Amino acid sequence: MARLTKREVDSLRPLPDRDVFAWDGEIRGFGIRVKPTGSKTYFVQYRNADGRTRRLVIGKHGILATDQARDLGRQKLAEVCKGDDPSAQRRAARASLTIADICDWYLKEGRAGRLLGRNRRPIKATTLDGDEGRINVHIKPLIGSRSIRGFILADVEKFQAEIAAGRSLARAKRRGRGGQTRGGPGVAGRAVSTLRGMLGHAKRHGLLEANPALGVRIVASKRNLRWLSRGELAVLGATMAAAERQGEHPTGLAAIRTLLLTGFRRLEVLGMHHSWIRDKENSICLPETKTGQQVRIVGQAAIDLLTQHPRREDSPFVFPADWGEGHFIGVVRVLDRVCARAGLAGITPHVLRHTFASMAAELGFSELTIAGLLGHASRGVTQRYIHLDRALILAANRVAAEIAQLVVPSTSAIQRNAAE
What we know:
Elements: H1 6-11, E1 20-23, E2 30-34, E3 40-47, E4 53-60, H2 66-81, H3 86-96, H4 99-111, H5 125-143, H6 153-164, H7 185-204, H8 230-245, H9 250-262, H10 266-270, E5 277-278, E6 283-286, E7 294-297, H11 300-308, H12 331-342, H13 349-362, H14 367-374, H15 381-384, H16 390-407, H17 413-419
Antiparallel strand pairs: 1-2, 2-3, 3-4, 5-6, 6-7
Helix pairs in contact: 4-5, 4-7, 5-7, 6-7, 8-12, 9-11, 9-12, 9-13, 9-16, 13-14, 16-17
């Protein structure tokens, strides 16, 4: 056969019952295999010093160009001529890898932008921060020293059970986001999800033959059903007003009110820039969220709160830090102090988001409308364009006005009636 070219490789078609092989006519031992699934993989085949036939995978077609694969194949075959056995060396390297090695590789490659997430874009830094916390607190302390060879699905589920029982608590200190040390079903499920995803990346990049966490059953966690009733919102609003008069941090209080009026996630509020606010369109353009770039509709009461908040000219953030160039980060501490003073227990920024959704449901809005207000991932064409719906603006105005009436002292009756 002649020299393999991209055109010839692209023209190869799979067979349903067996692999298809094509060989390069220029480099003896270099070829490509087409599996019944259609996957095409370059490889070299040779005999080692003991006369045994070995086959070494070079890489997948599409990730490697044909000429690149040929150059790599030539290098490997040159090693064989020197007496080396690259296939055996690769197997030995894989066998010696530990879970901790895979963790370090994942974080290094992820930080360099060489790993793609579910949206086919480089994994976000915030996701890697959360994964690093779970790696340092749960994965490395419990199974980091384990060799990847012999690590099976049962080991993954045992690892999950240990975290659910809180056994990583005494063995590591929290470092970074995502490293809650108290354990429990929710923490265990997130740790196993991180492990499964990390091993999946390692398999795709040729470090592993198979992902031992594939098919694991994630333990069910108890859903947080906490939200603030109208009465609790009124108590919280009055308490915030009193606390503000007595010197509580005004940026923290404004951020709490914004969380309530928009239903945004904590970092979506704290990281908000003035330039993202489109007051005439009742929207905020978020360049990066949990589900990608979004234009999120917000009510007029929220727009008024954001545009009237004192602006620091040297910072792009709506809620800037007290010093430095970053955004405010103390909203949880302010919320804890206010709620303790108000006698409200179990209140987190996510509870404020849940409160917004509950108010929307109480006002009779549909699940699709509420999903659009919250910025949930799109599940169809209709939801993909829901931000263009005029009815969504009316819904955002109504929900924000109802909550603002209870928690924002400056909200007027005229503003509330306009939203209705």
